[in-house]
Amino acid sequence: MPSLRQNDDDRRRTADDNDAVRRPCGFITARLPLYWYAMHGHDETACPDDGADARMAVEGDGEAYARLVRRHQVTVARQMWRFTRNEREHAELVQDVFVSAYMSLRGYRGSGPFLHWLRKIALRSGLAFWKRRAASARQASLDEQTVARLAEDPAGHSAAEAGEVVHRALALLPPRDRLVLTLMHLEERSVAETAALLDWSPALVKVQAWRARAKLKKALQSLGMEEE
């Protein structure tokens, strides 16, 4: 009959094995909640050490991948704040991005900046999140009273409140429309940058953005935010 100590050792080994599978999640190290960093901004910076750390991580060096996460977790947190303002969902999305990146690391060829590659994974994760939400149950709806107050006195409201209204208005659009408008108007990316991140042609970006703006304008008109 196994001793209590043996049982404890077995449980500890099982926990360690489970942690090894989930280890990329454990690399998130921001001292403040990730949504705090997302709200307060962060300069995106590529690092010359990224390529070397990525190669070492592919070879099984966990600390190398931890350095990549520490280096870029705030940038990813800021990007994923575009997809949800729910703190729990936001934290899970950031975790998902780094887990997906870890699982796809062998696909990083090093021909471009690691951060650019990581942002593309983040966009795919965010788009998948929007699609799951749209398919799950109820469509996001605007608080019409908040919209009306903002329309009547936009200067009387904080940037955070205005940003929340815009975020919720965009939630009324299909995921592809919402994504292209988010990149071009909220993140102020050019057509070329948007095309590179989405793996679309510049022509497709222009067409999708034009259609998305038309849909957004129609939605805002129905809510009294714009004149006919």
In short:
The chain contains 11 helices and no strands. It has helices at residues 4-26, 34-40, 50-58, 62-80, 87-103, 114-136, 144-152, 159-170, 175-186, 191-198, 202-222.
Keywords, separated by commas or semicolons:
228 residues; mainly alpha; Rna Polymerase Sigma Factor, Chain: A; Arc Repressor Mutant, subunit A; 2 domains
Structure description:
The chain has helices spanning 4-26, 34-40, 50-58, 62-80, 87-103, 114-136, 144-152, 159-170, 175-186, 191-198, 202-222. Helix 4 packs across helix 5 (87-103), helix 9 (175-186) packs across helix 11 and helix 10 crosses helix 11. The protein folds into two domains: 24-137, Rna Polymerase Sigma Factor, Chain: A (Orthogonal Bundle); 140-228, Winged helix-like DNA-binding domain superfamily/Winged helix DNA-binding domain (Arc Repressor Mutant, subunit A), CATH 1.10.10.10. It starts with a helix and ends in a 6-residue tail after the last helix. The protein has 228 residues and is mainly α. The protein contains eleven helices and no strands.
Strand-helix topology:
Blueprint: H1 4-26, H2 34-40, H3 50-58, H4 62-80, H5 87-103, H6 114-136, H7 144-152, H8 159-170, H9 175-186, H10 191-198, H11 202-222
Helix pairs in contact: 2-4, 3-4, 4-5, 4-6, 5-6, 9-11, 10-11
Query: Any idea of the CATH topology of the largest domain?
Result: Rna Polymerase Sigma Factor, Chain: A
Q: How many β-strands, per DSSP?
A: 0
Strand content bin? under 5%
CATH class of the largest domain: Mainly Alpha
Biggest sheet features:
none
The rough form would be described as: globular
- CATH architecture grouping of the largest domain: Orthogonal Bundle
Number of DSSP helical runs: 11
Low-confidence stretches: 1-7, 11-25, 137-144, 150-154
